[in-house]
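On clarity, I found the account of how folds are encoded harder to follow than it need be. What matters is that the chain and its backbone geometry are given together, residue for residue. I therefore recommend that a typical entry be quoted early in the introduction. An entry of this sort, consisting of the sequence and the corresponding backbone structure tokens, reads as follows:
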Amino acid sequence: MADFLIDPNRYQHRMRQNQQTEQKKSPQAQEPEEEKEAKKPEEQAARQEKRAERRRTPEERRMDRYHGLVNWLREENRRRLEELRRTKPPEKKKPPIEEIRLKIQEMRSKLRKGGRLTGEEKAYLARNAPEELAKLLQAERERSAFKARLNGCRSKEEADHAYQGACTSAMTADLGDPDLSSVIIGQLSAAMREMEEKPTEAQLERQEPRRPRALDCKG
């Protein structure tokens, strides 16, 4: 009978070995009680949030999606504006006033001599001196209108009379800029020179006299 008796010490030793083995297999069993207690409020909050979400009506859920979309659009617009600011080319600084004044004087001198403004010069004035651009364009329009008037003159005397009248009008007109009159007169003089260089109809007839039309003798 002594061979079949169970040794209590040996039995307790095996029980401790089995517990240690189970703890190694399941790490969750090794977590301290304090960590388990700390996780309980988070789990409870998550469960409450899920229950609250289930209680929300379809309209409330649609409003949530709408607000989410609005917030996304605002963030996207902000991001794109920042990207545009980074990629936008730097604005050209306006040149000094003295430099602009010298450029205007050069252009006025050019028009007094009968020249015309180039596209680049007009763009420069449009950016830096739009009021001056309007004045110089007025001088060029006066030239075009006077040239059209000269085309209707039948003699040199009539053209000279028209030129004198146009110059007098430019000098006596209240333009608000005394120097602008000289610019307009320079443009009128250029139109007069162009007309003098162009042969008149009488000169063309002297160079190539018209041939009489042949009489039709068929009868």
Q: What stands out?
A: The CA atoms of residues 107 and 130 lie 14 Å apart. The chain has a mean pLDDT of 78. The two ends are 170 Å apart (CA to CA).
